[in-house]
Design brief:
alpha+beta; 8-stranded mixed beta sheet; two-stranded antiparallel ribbon; about 25% strand; globular; helicase activity; Helicase; ATP-binding; helicase; hydrolase
């Protein structure tokens, strides 16, 4: 498959990989550990945790993650979530389990500051945030779609977000996907 500006499209673009261990903790244990790390959650993040569809794995495993921008997926003008997730899949990436969010937040403690001086724009990912691409639990537009990571005034956050199917992400918005393993292909 070929795209315009292939030299700037994953995997021929700048991206960040991390290996993150997930699993082995219940939701209440995860919340306890987040508190030990002084990580805050917004109301949407708490709502995700409280939902029965958000499950954790008893078994520990390691996931290889890839952080890149919407533009690096071949969308120089941005794209909606469906198109982003479909393109990532075409490029050999897959959605992350929802529980990756809290585990990654606890491992990624040196995230850069989220530009608190910039005014927050409605209906846009906050500056400096990283959205974790995960399976959407419900089509209800009022229910959070997943987690994103942010550092604001030195405080680490695990935040939930809402975005309907029409929301267009900016080309500079950062997402984290998992690499497909042999069994995924």
């Amino acid at each position: 498959m070929r795209f315009e500006n292939d030299d700037k499209i994953y995997p021929y673009c700048p991206f960040i990989t991390r290996i993150v261990e997930v699993g082995g903790l219940t939701k209440s244990q995860l919340i306890q550990k987040l508190q030990q790390y002084s990580i805050l959650m917004n109301e949407y993040g708490e709502k995700l945790f409280a939902d029965d569809k958000f499950t954790t794995s008893n078994k520990k495993s390691s996931l290889q993650t890839v952080e890149l921008t919407v533009g690096n997926l071949g969308f120089p003008d941005g794209a909606n979530t469906d198109r982003i997730f479909k393109r990532a899949n075409e490029l050999g990436l897959k959605l992350c389990p929802l529980e990756l969010g809290p585990h990654l937040r606890m491992e990624y403690l040196d995230q850069l500051e989220g530009y608190s001086g910039n005014p927050l724009k409605q209906q846009q990912a906050p500056s400096g945030s990283i959205t974790i691409a995960s399976e959407i639990l419900t089509e209800d537009d009022e229910f959070p779609k997943g987690f994103y990571l942010r550092r604001i005034n030195g405080v680490l956050w695990l935040r939930g977000y809402c975005a309907d199917h029409l929301h267009v992400w900016n080309p500079n918005d950062h997402f984290i996907f998992c690499e497909k393993t042999l069994q995924d292909k």
